[in-house]
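Morning!

This is the sequence you dropped in the shared folder:
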Amino acid sequence: MEIKSRHHLRSDAIGEIEEALATNLAVELDADSFEKVELTNDDWDVVLVDGKPLVLYLDDEPFLTVRGANAYPPEDHVVTVDAGAIQFVSNGADVMRPGIVEADETIAADDLVVIQEETHGKFLAVGRALASGEDMVGDEGRVIESLHHVGDDLYELQA
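The structure's back. Tokens below.
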């Protein structure tokens, strides 16, 4: 995956990104430049924040990438998994109930979420909730569809 083109965003587009991240994740970006990039062979809509791929659009909604979540740790829409789930989540697997130790109760089914490992607090993936945050902890079932994870092409993108 390579960058085909890039252009600076207008202030209103930057404001939309900042507002969406503040509302959905309780994150305030502190950055000097925002550039939207078009990639050669992928469907990702990515925004470089100070030259780093920290924001992506999923269903026309700006959200943090895994790198973005580690640079600007979100407070909302966070799901925490145990050590046993790290290997699977890091390889792009969907998240299953037994691996979840905690989930933000404000999460609704179909919301975008970030997945964090419990030991060091590092973010491993971005996904779509298939259940509410209140229903994520349990014994069986798939509750998060993985959309982007550590080590995928987007994570490895060098701007």
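Headline: The mean pLDDT is 93.

More detail when I'm at my desk.
O.
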